[in-house]
Amino acid sequence: MNTSHEARAVLSTTEGQWPSFLEKWYFDTILEDGTLLVVLVGQMELFGLRRAHLSAELHRPDGSLVRGDTSIGKIVRTGHRAGFSGGVLTPTSIEWQTPVLSGRLRIIPRLSATSLRDPLLVDGKRRLRWIVEVPDGAADGEVTCHGERAEIHGRCYRDYVAFDLLPWRLGIRELHWGRAFGGDRTRWWIKLRTRKETVEAGSLDSDVNSQLPRPQLQEERMLQEMHVADLPVLRVGVLRSALRRLVGDPYQVRFIARAALGTTMGWAVREEVRW
User: Fold this and answer.
1) What is the pLDDT at residue 262?
2) Residues 7-30 as b or e (16 or more Cβ within 10 Å = b)
């Protein structure tokens, strides 16, 4: 894979408004054999109660799963770094620790950060942002799983979501997201349906276009299904049941599949969330 030293990765920053604010980073890397590593780093504030959490998952081709998650105290920004207990996130690296699964990876972006539009949704002075900070890149480093170290060399992706929309006015009905790569080509796509509109677009490398079709997927396998409020990265303790009622208790399903981009076979990961 050709990488470009001119590709620019960013680490986004958002100031949220009371009484609710959430920001999270989604990072994944897919190895040649279809192993998928996913790391979620996020913090949420609801009526003055703040929680920051990290979860890491290693999905192996044989269907086995290793998951580690931990509270990370508070995410503290210093320059272009977001530090937290046991780890740090920068535009070109990620490091984390959990009792089960830890890692340290260098990110070499192939494409610069992009977005469909920023903000993605607006309600008065409140907004939802979605920034694809690393549309495609190489990830190199290692993970430690149950005390055993393994090298990681894969194709990676990272995005950032932040919103201070009032949960009871969120108005989202369904979300479809995915990303794929094959050879030197890369794709991401999104479809977001609210009570008022449908936002849909895709990308091919650096071209963001609402007319781009999704890639053809083969041999799709479901990796995970659960209520969004039960995701470790969104753990808010006693407020969990209230959060479920406020946002309509959305349900998420994640898949991995083979993907064809042009004449080259690669991999894709996608998610569906329904309210």
Assistant:
1) 82
2) bebbbbebebeeebbbbbbbbbbb
3-class secondary-structure state, position 121:
strand
- Interstrand relation of 198-204 and 185-194 (parallel, antiparallel or unpaired): antiparallel
- Bridge pairing between strands 264-274 and 185-194: unpaired
**pLDDT tens for each residue of 221-262:** 999 898 766 666 555 555 556 556 655 677 899 999 999 998
- CA separation for the pair 21, 45 (Å, rounded): 5
Q: What is the CA radius of gyration of the chain?
A: 18
The C-alpha atoms of residue 162 and residue 129 are separated, in whole angstroms, by 5
Half-sphere exposure of 167 (CA within 13 A, CB side): 22
Query: CA neighbours within 13 Å on the CB side: how many for 211?
Result: 0
Chain mean position to CA 102: 17
SS3 236: coil
Tokens in use for 182? 């094959």
User: How do residues 20-47 score in pLDDT, each as one tens digit?
Assistant: 899 999 999 999 999 999 999 999 888 8
Burial classification of residue 102, based on how many CB atoms lie within 10 Å of its CB (0-12 exposed, 13-18 middle, 19 or more buried): buried
Q: Cα 25 from chain centroid?
A: 5
